[in-house]
Design brief:
The termini are far apart. Helices cover 86% and strands 0% of the residues.
Length: 197
């Protein structure tokens, strides 16, 4: 369970600026305030890690550049349609980055990397598929509904879909990893027995 919380914590930290923007936008309906504070949080997170001399993963850099880039364009255009379509661009870019084999290793404990590296790759590709599906769904909702409906629908969908994917991936790796560990433990005595006779 500790590994679940640790992985969840890292994932939430990587998505903090985006989630913060979304929550603030839903609460205030102020695009400028939400964008500026989301950009500030993303920058502060990287700055904090740099001052503590901690390594910054590719996903963290990508998240920062997406928040800063999309935020700047939103501030320049002040167009709510851009705000509504922007998540599709982000989902697509994240989906492409998640096609990189082994991107999930940052979120996994050493035992999972040892026992289920193949399952982690499959789960990583499933995450990528979720991002592409989310991008398409967001475009459909953004182009067919008003801002209020879009923000509520995509907020609920975003949280629920990611939580479900996270839990399904964790359960799959945990279950298969435990089965593989038991199989390795049961195979070990048979390997040692011939040497003892």
């Amino acid at each position: 369970m500790t590994n679940l919380f640790e992985a969840g914590k890292l994932l939430l930290l990587d998505m903090a600026a985006t989630l913060f923007f979304l929550v603030l936008y839903l609460a205030t309906h102020n695009v400028t305030l939400s964008v500026v504070l989301g950009m500030a949080l993303g920058t502060a997170q990287i700055g904090w890690q740099l001052t503590r001399r901690k390594p910054i993963d590719t996903m963290q850099w990508m998240s920062l550049f997406l928040v800063l880039g999309a935020g700047a364009v939103t501030l320049i255009t002040d167009d709510p349609r851009f705000v509504m379509i922007k998540p599709s661009v982000i989902y697509t870019i994240v989906g492409v980055v998640m096609l990189r084999r082994g991107w999930m290793n940052r979120y996994l404990p050493p035992v999972a990397i040892e026992l289920v590296p193949d399952i982690a790759v499959i789960v990583g590709y499933a995450w990528s598929g979720l991002m592409f599906f989310s991008a398409a769904l967001n475009v459909i909702v953004a182009l067919n509904f008003d801002v209020g409906t879009w923000s509520m629908t995509m907020s609920v969908y975003g949280i629920v879909s990611k939580a479900l994917m996270f839990l399904i991936g964790y359960a799959a790796m945990r279950t298969i990893g435990a089965a593989r560990r038991r199989r390795l433990a049961s195979d070990r005595p048979r390997d040692v027995a011939p040497m003892l006779s």
